[in-house]
Specification:
Layout lengths: L2 H17 L5 H4 E10 L2 H4 L10 H11 E14 L2 E12 L5 E11 L5 E8 L1 H15 L13
Parallel strand pairs: 1-5
Antiparallel strand pairs: 2-3, 3-4, 4-5
C-alpha cells in the first residue's frame, strides 16, 4: 500500500469521527480492527470511548462529547504497513470552549490496505479537564464525575 492510499484511509476514518458517520469506517477498517488510547489506565477508563477497543464505539463516544473543529496534519511517517501521524487540532467539549490539542496516531494496515489497529497518544487529562469544566458550566456547579486525583 502506498503513502497516499494510507493517508486517504486515515482521512476517511477522521471524517467519520468528525461527522458521526461511522458507516465510513466500513470502507477503511478491517474486520475486528482495534483502537486504543495510550496513557495512564485510570485516566483512559474515564476518557470518552476509553473503555472500548471497537473503533466505531470509540468514535461514537467521542462524537457525542467532543467536537473536532479543526485538524491539521503536521507530519506523517510511513514505514511498511504503519503510518505515524502528528496532528494539531482545535477541539471543543459539548458545552465548553474551544482549545488547542495535539494528537499522535500510529495506524497499522493489512495487505489489503485496511486499517487493523490504531493507537492514539494525546493529553487525555486535558480533555477530561475540559469535560469536567463543561459539566460544571452547564449544571449548577455539578461535576461530570471525573476525579483526576483518584488512584
Amino acid at each position: 500500500m502506498d503513502r497516499e492510499a494510507m493517508l486517504e484511509a486515515i482521512e476517511t476514518l477522521y471524517e467519520g469521527r468528525r461527522t458521526g458517520d461511522t458507516s465510513l469506517f466500513e470502507k477503511v477498517l478491517a474486520p475486528h480492527a482495534s483502537f486504543r488510547f495510550v496513557g495512564d489506565g485510570s485516566i483512559i477508563m474515564e476518557f470518552p470511548g476509553g473503555r472500548d477497543s471497537d473503533p466505531q464505539k470509540v468514535a461514537q463516544a467521542l462524537f457525542e462529547q467532543v467536537d473536532m473543529l479543526e485538524r491539521t496534519m503536521l507530519s506523517a511517517t510511513i514505514e511498511e504497513n504503519r503510518a505515524a501521524v502528528h496532528w494539531q487540532a482545535v477541539m471543543r467539549v459539548k458545552g465548553g470552549v474551544p482549545f488547542q490539542h495535539e494528537l499522535f496516531d500510529l495506524w497499522e494496515f493489512n495487505d489489503e490496505g485496511l486499517i487493523t489497529a490504531g493507537h492514539q497518544f494525546q493529553d487525555t487529562a486535558k480533555v477530561i479537564e475540559e469535560l469536567d469544566d463543561a459539566g460544571k458550566a452547564s449544571s449548577s456547579g455539578g461535576s461530570m464525575g471525573f476525579d483526576l486525583g483518584a488512584s
